[in-house]
Amino acid sequence: MPRSPLAFLGGLLALFLLVPIAAFVVRFAVSGDRGFQTPGLAAAFWTSIVTASISTAIIVVLGVPLAYALARSTGGLGRALGILVQLPLALPPVMSGIVLIYVVGPYTWLGELFDGRLTGSLAGIVIAQTFVASPFLVIAARSAFAALDPALDDLAATLGHRPLARFVRVALPAAASGIGAGVLLTWLRALGEYGATVLLAYHPYSLPVFTSVQFQSAGIPGTQAPTALALGIAILAVLLGAARRPSCRRRSAGSRSTSAARAILPAPPRPDTPTPVAFALDARVGAFTLDLSHGAGAHRIAILGPSGSGKSVTLRALAGLLDGARGSVRLGGDDVTAVSAEDRHVGYVAQGGALLPGRTVLQQVRFGVGTDPAVASWWLRTLRLDGLEDRLPSELSGGQRQRVALASALSRQPRVILLDEPFSALDAPVREELRRELRRLQVETGLSTVLVTHDPEEAAMLADEILVIDGGRLLQAGPRRDVFSRPASPAVARLLGIPNLLRGVAVSGEAIETAGARVPAPGHGIAEGEAVLWSVRPERLRVRLRGAGPADGTPAGLPATVVDVAELGTSTSLTVRIGVDAELRAHTTDTVELAVGDAADVSWDPAALSVWTDPSAEHAAP
Ligand SMILES: Nc1ncnc2c1ncn2[C@@H]1O[C@H](COP(=O)(O)OP(=O)(O)OP(=O)(O)O)[C@@H](O)[C@H]1O
After folding, report:
1. 350 CA to middle of ligand 1, Å?
2. What was the pLDDT predicted at 300?
3. In sequence order, what are the residues at sequence separation of 6 or more whose Cβ sits closer than 8 angstroms to the Cβ of residue 604?
4. How far is the centre of ligand 1, averaged over its atoms, from the C-alpha of 294 (Å)?
5. How many angstroms separate the alpha carbon of residue 308 from the centre of ligand 1?
6. What is the pLDDT of residue 122?
């Protein structure tokens, strides 16, 4: 009894498909004369084998590039063509034969050009098979290409590979198993083609036409041998397709020679000249508009912004991967606006660190055009990947994958490396370890980097200059210290993860009232009655037991009550309440003697205070 109706329904169809074949096999086994000596059978068999192989070869040579183009096209024309090329699948094969006669029949222009040899010939069979079987390959190959990660193509482009090389060396190997299944299906369909063939080329007999002729002249017994042959081939082909493919690990001479690679003398990378990046970008991606410019300052910059703010689009534009982007990009002193992604010599590590499937670590790091194997080995060792040279991407941990992606980009000695949230998918300890590793490389090799991140801490750690963006526009840019200590707006303060962002009203030009507490704010040019937002970074706050006088020169503070003390291992996070219900968070590495409920004073250096006009109050104004 099947466990579910689904199993029952599926089982019913399987039975329907298998029973007739089983019935034939039983009859064939007990049959006295199986008809293998029938004149013409061998010729028909070979005719089918040869023509199906020729038509499949034609379909592969023409159909794989077509499928690739269809998978990559986004326009209406591509979509329309994608539907049209499936028509022969929907057309009854006999009708396919009829439409083909309009083009290659003996009285057509083409037919006359070839002296009528396009019908009633092997060529006719090939034409019929090609027409009917092509969609099988195009559909299978298009699905295989469409399933590829587009980041692989970007990666190969930034490693210097031109479109044809990317097709041959990246897309084809990655889509090979899907295409292989399509080729098998196409060959079987061509082999079994009858309807179009019988109209276009009745002679010489293909195996299906021969079977039909036998059926009409000798009845069922005369069809046993050709049917058995076709069934045998089909079973063989299906078994071949289902057989586990040998591992696609491609152990080229390069990947086998791990020890040889190790034997190469260490070669330090070319000394880097710091390459600050300057750009003015104007691009549209779908409905999103990017309008961003930045002048070259430091050679280690971070682009910080919330999800969907345009960080990745910016990075793709800098790499030369964004079609239709206007504006300019300068690397160091060079204008590279008109330089293609292949020639920009910019390393690019896409979000998630795309790696080429089926290639070992050593092959990945040597994949860049013109990569010096000695430099690749140097980066392998520097990024602690030695010993993993023979591993495939699927055999690496997340942190190792990121290191390989980094080593691949660095091995081509790029002028600058673009990193798209390189550590976001990793767990905290690995993320921390890789951040420190990248920082070490920045310091030791003078690496120029543009880092995309939504983590303010990561931006602070790995960049000297920070760009804060949202909605494709620049909110603030400047040296790290300036941006963090003086956020240009509440929105920037929020994106920088500053927790102490409070509303208040200026009660004079020198003080703000928040929840009943009077907060000193000298020198901010606020006008009495103005609604404001203000903020102080947690590490700038001092919290002391009420009455314990200031020992470090900071002014005496506001009265506060301790509401939370959280030990964080090496530091302490304190939450205090000021006024009726406003809370401030303080962060300190000092020993904390305070407890929840203690009366305290909270103070800060007045220069640490940021004050802005409250934009929500402005909108609310009549
Ligand atoms: N190929 C595309 N077609 C249409 N819209 C796109 C395309 N790529 C990105 N976008 C849109 O552009 C905007 C910016 O995307 P982008 O990937 O740069 O964001 P992000 O800041 O990197 O976000 P995240 O941190 O989530 O990766 C988003 O609104 C996104 O939907």
Report:
1. 13
2. 92
3. 536, 540, 541, 542, 554, 557
4. 20
5. 5
6. 96
Cis peptide before 606 (omega within 30 of 0): no
Please write down the HEC assignment for all residues of 151-162: HHHHHHHHCCCC
Ligand 1 pocket, 313 CB below 6 A? yes
Query: 602 CA to middle of ligand 1, Å?
Result: 42
The ligand 1 atom nearest the CA atom of 472: 14
* Ramachandran region, residue 547 (left: φ > 0; alpha: ψ -120 to 50; beta: rest): left
No. of helices (H) and no. of strands (E), the chain: 24, 20
Cβ of 285 closer than 6 Å to ligand 1, yes or no, is yes
In this structure, which residue's CA is closest to atom 28 in ligand 1?
Answer: 308
What's the gap in Å between 312 CA and the centre of ligand 1?
7
pLDDT < 50 regions, the chain = 247-268, 271, 619-622
DSSP-assigned beta bridge partners for residue 346: 416
Ligand 1 centroid from CA 410, angstroms: 26
Give CA–CA dist 601/604, Å, rounded. 10
pTM tops 0.90: no
Q: Is the Cβ atom of 324 under 6 angstroms away from ligand 1?
A: no
Q: 572-578 and 558-567 as β-strands: parallel, antiparallel, unpaired?
A: antiparallel
157: CB partners within 8 A, 6+ apart? 166, 320, 321, 340, 341, 342
Contact 535, 502 (CB under 8 A): yes
Choose one of 73, 153, 284, 288 to mutate for the ligand 1 pocket test, by most ligand atoms within 8 angstroms of C-beta.
288
Q: CA-to-CA distance for 247 and 119, rounded, in angstroms?
A: 44
CA nearest ligand 1 atom 18, residue = 310
Is residue 465 packed enough to be buried (19+ CB in 10 Å), middle (13-18) or exposed (0-12)? buried
H runs (alpha helix) in 320-411 = 361-365, 373-382, 398-411
Place of tokens 């006359």: 112
ipTM of the complex in this document: 0.96
Helix (H) or strand (E) holding 182: helix 172-191
pLDDT of residue 396: 92
CB of 468 sitting under 6 A from ligand 1: no
Tokens of 94: 């006999």
- Ordered by where they begin, the domains of the chain are 19-242 (1.10.3720.10), 258-485 (3.40.50.300), 501-620 (2.40.50.140)
Name every residue whose Cβ is closer than 8 Å to that of residue 448 and which is 6 or more positions away in sequence: 272, 274, 275, 276, 277, 299, 300, 415, 416, 417
Ligand 1 centroid–CA 548 distance in Å is 52
Query: Cα(475)–Cα(20) distance, rounded to whole angstroms?
Result: 71
- State whether the beta carbon of 74 lies less than 6 angstroms from ligand 1: no
Q: Which amino acid is at 225?
A: A
Token digits of residue 293: 């410019």
Strand partners, 514: 517
